[in-house]
């Protein structure tokens, strides 16, 4: 029995993984069937957003085997996020072992081989126990929930329309570079404003000057220039996307693009023939237009995925689903 997911929505699988941190140590963790938690109402995660998370996927290959993409990079970024929020690190081996264990236990929920469907894996850590004053929690829980998923944005990989947000998701030297719940709560207002106005999502600008592109609420931004450069923003307040890191490598090694991490001014979109949003959930979603202060900029490739974006998409998903060779050591096959 393999489940057919409906877009990026939650379908409960059989088991979740839970590990507890008490008195300076993580326990081994165990699998539980309920996805409901019982914690103190005074937990720091509930009041002070002492929570961090990750997102990665398990892919079913043509031969039926299941594989993970760059799990070690998620484990490292999870440590960075935990450190920033004064939470204990989950050792890399513990993280990877737990991810493998929970995916194996929910094997039946990994969708059949196909270009869009996969098992989304959501590891997260919460501060628990009672704290009234503002200080780190006395105890923590490391939990992993999984769900079969399809595409993040509705429909096929059709270009989406974005609305520039007048609000910020993270401060210049704040928490934008780590994957912590507070960033996402702060982005909801702008996101829903864009969705209500008929856009797929919002696009954030840099919090210092509001002139440069940062990222979407859950994906990085990249553009392809007329002279074959892959350009993506360089900023202390955006998340270092593992998908974007992979695309930079593939763009340079396989397509011969020059990769630039630099400022991208919102008033300089004419330089791009193609633009896209990239992330574990979004994979690569082409961007058709960006509306800023009432002016809509439409990219030349606004009705379908552009040629270069398509090449990147095929290379990336080819490696993730096991159809392309992985010379980089990004793949972990489950036994
Ligand atoms: C704010 C933000 N930017 C970018 C990304 C893409 O990161 P990754 O490619 O590691 O999933 C995500 C998704 O995790 C995100 O939440």
Strand content: 25-35%
Q: Number of helical runs?
A: 6
In quaternary terms, these chains amount to single chain
Topology, number of strands: 18
- List low-confidence stretches: none
CA-to-CA gap between the ends? 19 Å
- Structural class, by secondary structure, is alpha+beta
Major sheet description: 9 strands, antiparallel
Shape: globular
Instruction: Give the SSE order as H and E letters.
Output: EEEHEEEHHEEEHEEEEHEEEEHE
Overall mean pLDDT: 96
Ligands present: pyridoxal-5'-phosphate
Percent helix range: 10-25%
Radius of gyration over alpha carbons?
A: 20 Å
Describe the structure.
The structure is a single chain. The chain is of the alpha+beta class and 335 residues long. Helix content is 22%, strand content 30%. It has 6 helices and 18 strands. It has helices spanning 44-47, 71-84, 92-105, 181-196, 242-254, 307-320; strands at 16-22, 25-26, 30-32, 51-53, 56-60, 66-69, 118-128, 139-149, 160-164, 201-205, 213-216, 220-225, 229-233, 258-262, 272-279, 283-292, 295-298, 331-333. Strands 1, 2, 3, 4, 5, 6, 7, 8 and 18 form a 9-stranded antiparallel β-sheet that branches. Strands 9, 10, 11, 12, 13, 14, 15, 16 and 17 form a 9-stranded mixed β-sheet that branches. A hairpin with a 3-residue loop joins β12 and β13 (229-233). The model has no long low-confidence stretch (mean pLDDT 96). Pyridoxal-5'-phosphate binds next to α5.
């Amino acid at each position: 029995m393999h489940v057919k997911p409906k877009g990026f929505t939650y379908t409960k699988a059989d088991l979740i993984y839970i590990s507890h941190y008490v008195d300076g140590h993580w326990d081994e963790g165990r699998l539980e069937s309920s996805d409901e938690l019982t914690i103190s109402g005074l937990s720091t995660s509930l009041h002070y957003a002492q929570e961090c998370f990750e997102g990665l996927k398990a892919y079913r290959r043509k031969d039926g085997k299941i594989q993970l993409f760059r799990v070690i990079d998620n484990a490292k970024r999870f440590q960075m996020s935990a450190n920033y929020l004064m939470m204990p690190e989950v050792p890399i081996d513990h993280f990877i072992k737990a991810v493998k264990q929970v995916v194996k236990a929910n094997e039946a929920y990994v969708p059949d081989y196909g270009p869009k469907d996969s098992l989304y894996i959501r590891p997260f850590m919460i501060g628990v126990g009672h704290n009234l004053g503002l200080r780190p929690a006395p105890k923590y829980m490391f939990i992993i929930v999984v769900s079969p998923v399809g595409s993040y944005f509705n429909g096929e990989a059709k270009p989406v329309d974005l609305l520039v947000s007048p609000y910020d998701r993270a401060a210049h030297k704040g928490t934008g570079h780590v994957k912590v719940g507070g960033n996402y709560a702060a982005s909801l207002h702008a996101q829903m404003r864009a969705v209500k106005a008929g856009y797929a999502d919002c696009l954030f600008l840099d919090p210092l000057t509001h002139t440069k592109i940062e990222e979407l609420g859950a994906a990085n931004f990249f553009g392809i220039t007329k002279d074959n450069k892959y350009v993506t923003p360089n900023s202390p307040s955006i998340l270092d996307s593992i998908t974007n890191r992979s695309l930079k490598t593939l763009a340079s090694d396989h397509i011969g693009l020059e990769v630039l991490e630099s400022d991208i001014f919102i008033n300089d979109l004419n330089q791009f023939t193609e633009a896209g949003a990239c992330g574990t959930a979004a994979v690569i979603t082409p961007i058709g237009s960006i509306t800023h202060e009432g002016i809509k900029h439409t990219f030349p490739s606004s009705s379908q995925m552009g040629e270069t974006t398509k090449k990147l998409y095929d290379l990336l998903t080819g490696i993730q689903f096991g159809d392309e060779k992985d010379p980089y050591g990004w793949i972990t096959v489950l036994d």
